[in-house]
Fold this sequence. Notes:
alpha/beta, Nucleotidyltransferase, domain 5, DNA polymerase, domain 1, 6-stranded mixed β-sheet, 19 helices, flat, 3'-5' exonuclease activity, Ribonuclease D, HRDC_dom_sf, RNaseH-like_sf, nucleotide binding
Amino acid sequence: MTDTPLENDLPSPDDPEGLEEVPADTPAEDPQAPLLVLRDGLPAVVETDAGLAEVSAAIAAGSGPVAIDAERASGYRYSSRAYLIQLRREGSGTWLVDPIPLSTLAPLAEALEGVEWILHAATQDLPCLREVGLRPSSLFDTELAGRLLNYPRVGLATLVETVLGQRMRKEHSAADWSTRPLPESWLEYAALDVEVLVELRDHLADELESSGKAEWATQEFAHLLDFEPTVRQEAWRRTSGVHRLRGRRALGAARALWEARDRVAAERDVTPGRILPDSAIVAAATALPTDRRSLLATQGFHGRGASRYAATWVDALQRVAAMPEDELPARAPRGDGPPHPRTWADRDPVADRRFRAARESMLNIAEAHQVPVENLITPDYVRRLMWDPPSTREAADLATAVRERLTAYGARPWQQELVVGALTGAILAADEEPTEQTPQESLGG
């Protein structure tokens, strides 16, 4: 399981209103905890269709859920394809499958039909597994289970140490898994990722049951079956440092260079930053050179592809220099959502009161039920609802409308059960003009 995030997996932008609080997974290791080792030794990598037939037969003959993981080459490759797939099932043992040379994974997909998958951080691996024809009919996500149980750290190594009392190796988490042949130490690291997933799943399932959260997890796991990565609009605006650019033409240059870099990266299947770093894009967009010599002389313009693809970068900059003003990007990004909550007090004081009341209620409910607030309800749903609530103010009708709106956004029934009343109350209370307090009243006198 590669820990380095893909570009599509990066966390959302700043959330200063405080609804999203995902802790870092940087625990201190317990030197007394035994190091996790492979019980059955390191299996050979399966890289032929005949070998896959053997894997598929073994998996089909096993019992219970199957632990699955995939290794990508995040940080090295443009694509998010799986370069290694690890599987373990009771009665089947552990298998390592290299999907790159195989003609199809259909036999494995057939063997997995109707079997519960156990994954850790399923949203990281589902897209690349789907790309090779593997789709779960049901799943258990150990990371998400850990979040619902309010574990402060939910990385796989941390949960294994906390729940099972064993330490896991982490030294190859950011390796280039497109490397061939894969070193034996990397393969052992990969095999260990599925070694105890079944045991971890069983412990967490028991905790979910005893804490009354088993149904929550069931709904969350079912929701993940249809997961699709977010397609970011105007992804070029996430270029590091682009906020420092002044003027629409500089923004246009950043966009053009980002798009040109993306095309080159896709053609070469290399992560974009290895061709031209974000800092070089910002440097060129600031200086706006229009010929090769001045571009390469621009301070801060560097990278492996700076000179090699200089003609591509110059062409992009020349097109922006000739572009009419109305074709250049606006300073503010386009979006269909509400404005940032920090602007609400000036733009719509009632909406601001709604949001503040809703935020406080969500934090209180999350604390009462011992669940992270971002898992209680997606923060964007709260923002959208508080900015543009249903028009009715009859309490029962409003609660129904709030529930319908949350359903349309994608909120699960267990989430609605916990938050609809509080969100309805926040909408109703905000419509009342706040009363001025005397100094004594504000101090509690």
